[in-house]
Design brief:
Oligomer: single chain
Protein name: Hcy-binding domain-containing protein
Structural class: alpha/beta
Shape: globular
Number of helices: 13
Low-confidence stretches: none
Strand order of the largest sheet: 1-8-7-6-5-4-3-2
Keywords: Metal-binding, Methyltransferase, Transferase, Zinc
Organism: Elysia chlorotica (Eastern emerald elysia)
Helix content: 40-55%
Radius of gyration: 21 Å
Order of helices and strands: HEHHHEHHEHEHEHEHEHEHH
CATH class: Alpha Beta
Pathway: Amino-acid biosynthesis; L-methionine biosynthesis via de novo pathway
Number of domains: 1
Distance between the termini: 60 Å
Cofactor: Zn(2+)
Length: about 350
């Protein structure tokens, strides 16, 4: 297999990069991650499930196999009494991702996440985050990562620390840094989001952008503003949920029938459909966003929509829908099949 073209080279040449994220949410949905703490011990307990999801996302069109080390840092594993497994978890996850990436000719990314313990303007808290990131970056280098993803930062200061650590200990690896946009258009340490992205770019991030928090509809306005001030590649990885101006984040969404809050366990009723994802991918492409994917709530068929909008034909495209061949919804439905369709659709009372 020929050498895999690097991330920097792809972005420099104006190419699009599809990155599948959302491992935590999808593995929770499948029964292998505990909602609430959301730690990735599935890497150790059921490694084949992680490998299978890597392959599934590649099949759907991802250019990147991201090591599942989100929340795989010391502070989180201490909560579940598995701090002693920290290094093994990270190295095993990186090896699984490396093996799948090599098998299919894809990029492999190491991963950093918000620490959940960071406190703005607290030097002690910053040092804890710095050490956690340093460990994971050094393991990513050892595991052969092609580049680093540092994601879902609600504090600008923590994102800066992650970038600094990648630049210092990452052996020259490219860095993709993404912030999470909550309801206000600013970070939780009160930096306007668009300004924060511009500053991260100026500090040397290879690609900056937004992930998680908002769905396509409410993330896109921020991306349009970011495009005006950021000179380099932008990243967009929304959650595939139908957020709106009243409820800008998926954490804020309510049930359209009961009015009850849906986050975190009952969001299925406000999931984006395939057309929503296709529209997002078209708008992102037209805005010149080179690096895109989906975050919490991602699924393979949604990822395939992005790939096909970008003109790709991943292996999963062999199974793209062809409704024309449906016996009740096809192009020439007649006879009893027409009656069946009318009963299904409620046309007959």
């Amino acid at each position: 297999m020929p050498p895999v073209k690097g991330l920097r080279e792809r972005l420099r040449d104006g190419e699009s990069v599809i990155c599948a994220e959302g491992y935590m949410w999808e593995l929770e949905r499948r029964g292998f991650v505990r909602a609430g703490v959301f730690t990735p011990e599935v890497v150790l307990d059921y490694p084949q499930r992680v490998i299978s999801l890597h392959e599934e996302y590649v099949h759907a069109g991802s250019d990147v196999v991201e090591a599942y080390t989100y929340y795989g840092h010391r502070e989180k594993l201490r909560l579940i009494g598995r701090e002693c497994d920290l290094e093994t978890l990270n190295l095993n996850s990186l090896k699984m991702a490396r093996d799948v990436a090599d098998k299919y000719g894809k990029l492999m990314a190491g991963n950093l996440s918000n620490t959940t313990t960071f406190q703005p303007d607290d030097p002690a808290s910053a040092e804890v985050a710095r050490q956690a990131f340093k460990e994971q970056v050094e393991w990513a280098v050892k595991g052969g990562a092609d580049y680093m993803i540092a994601e879902t930062f609600n504090d600008f200061q923590e994102a800066v620390i992650a970038l600094e650590v990648i630049k210092k200990y990452g052996n020259g690896m490219a860095a993709v840094i993404t912030l999470v946009p909550y309801s206000p258009d600013r970070t939780t340490d009160d930096v306007p989001l668009v300004d924060a992205l511009r500053r991260l770019e100026e500090l040397g991030a290879d690609c900056v952008g937004l992930n998680c928090g908002r769905g396509p509809r409410t993330m896109m306005p921020l991306l349009r503003e970011a495009r005006k001030v950021c000179k380099g590649p932008l990243a967009a990885l929304p959650v595939p949920f139908r957020t709106n101006e009243k409820e800008k984040t998926f954490q804020a969404l309510t049930d359209p029938i009961s009015g009850e809050k849906l986050y975190p366990l009952d969001l299925a009723c406000v999931q984006c459909n395939r057309s929503d994802i296709r529209k997002f991918a078209q708008e992102a492409r037209d805005l010149g966003i080179q690096y895109m994917g989906l975050c919490c709530g991602s699924s393979s068929h949604s990822l395939r929509e992005i790939a096909e909008v970008l003109g790709r034909k991943p292996a999963a495209s062999a199974y793209s829908p062809d409704i024309s061949k449906s016996f009740v919804m096809g192009n020439s439905v007649e006879g009893h099949a027409l009656k069946v369709r009318d009963f299904m659709m409620g046309y007959k009372k």
